Amino acid sequence: MPRPCAFKPHSQNPLWGVVLVWLSSPARLAPPARLAPPARLAPPALPAPPALPALLRPGGRQLERMTQRNPKQKIISQFHSLAAEGDVSKLTAILSHSPDLLNKTSENGWTALMYGARNGHPDVVQLLLEKGCDKSIVNKSRQTALDIATFWGYKHVVNLLANTKGRETPRFLPKKAEEWENYFSKTLLDRKSEKRTNSSWLLAKQSHPATIYILFSDLSPLVTLGGNNDSSQQPEVKLCQLSHADVKDYLTQPDKIILVFLGVELEMKKKALNPTHGETLTEEEDEVAWFALGIDHVSAEQFKKRHEDCYFLHPPMPALLQLKEKEAGVVAQARSVLAWHSRYSFCPTCGSATKIEEGGYKRQCLKEDCPSLIGVHNTCYPRVDPVVIMQVLHPDGNQCLLGRQKRFPPGMFTCLAGFIEPGETIEDAVRREVEEESGVKVGHVQYISCQPWPMPSSLMIGCLAVAISTEIKVDKNEIEDARWFTREQVVDVLTKGNQQMFFVPPSRAIAHQLIKHWIRMNSNL
């Protein structure tokens, strides 16, 4: 490559020096030919830089006229030329005066980062990334800088682009996500956690005539069908709200049951028990407590014979999605805690038997010298497993990545998801899981919303994630398939019921809400 000649600027504007340097050297600004898909073409050796178009050759009058007509585009061209040549010092100087050039695109949609990636300049790429450039921008050939570097085989540049976390929010994402409540997250109870250690208060509430019990067998809640007069709709599924009189025989057998205090109703009411003879009720006396009661299979069968209008709701999915939203929140809380009890009958530390404490929110080892009795240990309390679930967006913002597992119904695609590992952030878990399952690399990650998922005790952490590469390489050990779907295809499924090609989970799953959130960002859906 000919070395640029040194010219003194004709004015104090630092960009004039750049213009003169560029005029004395071969330019690399010709729009590159559309690249074939990487899978079809092995990365060849880097060819000679493309010739400068005749209109822009140094010394031509047409160049002068063009510069006068569009001086801003001319400056952008000089900036891109320096990136293509790998001139870090001049790039640094220009950015100190004109930082707005960082993400400017040429007529073919290329940025300085793309030119640096195309020509294998890791120092240029590093500089631009440190300055906060947007690596999710796509050119007119629908390529990101990472796609370009991957195609041409610049591994060091690929590593820089793939491992750098997104600093800037992509243009098509809202700066602040709207908050909403998901199914299983609404509840009608105040958990009253401060009452869990008050054994006398709990005992009094257990025998109170206004107290409500919900019964479980094998983690399935006891329900009944509501009175829906509209024959065109399915009957409403409701929890069977039992009284102390209905369950008192079970409460006398503490070794055969699991009892969990769930909280008190947010709206204080007395359930038709009004004060008489001038009696004044305190606030605590007026609170209606709820308990979850887990019984064995034999007891459950006997109970059903006595209450033929009730049944245990199973299998859990999709049956639990039939409940009213606030009752679903109560079931999510109860089912998760009961599932923990079913797995921790013995101490995880020493293997000894344990007993239930704190209203069902703690198990204490019965061995006197067990280390778990000293300090606070997570093995003694109900656990929650954090899971990231992400709507992965194409760098252009107009496509989303959805996948499917073999166990899914035919045609169903959903958001990718996976458990967070120890010592891992939400953002890093999103990036790792997406790449493991689909081979797509992710940059910017934005938290949106979360959903308790009582199967048995997960917290689904919903995010939007913007891809910085687009090629899909599915790991068949993780998922069966993954595809990019256009916004139009997804809208057809959500609004028109066109499910011939694919369909998504029901509206009460957070995956559905994440997909709909993406569509709503730029529409009135």
TrEMBL record:
Its cofactor is Mg(2+); Zn(2+). It holds the Pfam family NUDIX-like. Its EC number is 3.6.1.22. It catalyses: NADH + H2O = reduced beta-nicotinamide D-ribonucleotide + AMP + 2 H(+); a 5'-end NAD(+)-phospho-ribonucleoside in mRNA + H2O = a 5'-end phospho-adenosine-phospho-ribonucleoside in mRNA + beta-nicotinamide D-ribonucleotide + 2 H(+); NADPH + H2O = reduced beta-nicotinamide D-ribonucleotide + adenosine 2',5'-bisphosphate + 2 H(+); NAD(+) + H2O = beta-nicotinamide D-ribonucleotide + AMP + 2 H(+). GO terms for cellular component: nucleus; peroxisome. One of its GO terms (molecular function) is metal ion binding. Gene3D superfamilies: 3.90.79.20, Ankyrin repeat-containing domain, Nucleoside Triphosphate Pyrophosphohydrolase. Residues 382-516 form the Nudix hydrolase domain. Belongs to the Nudix hydrolase family. NudC subfamily. This is NAD-capped RNA hydrolase NUDT12. It comes from Ornithorhynchus anatinus (Duckbill platypus).
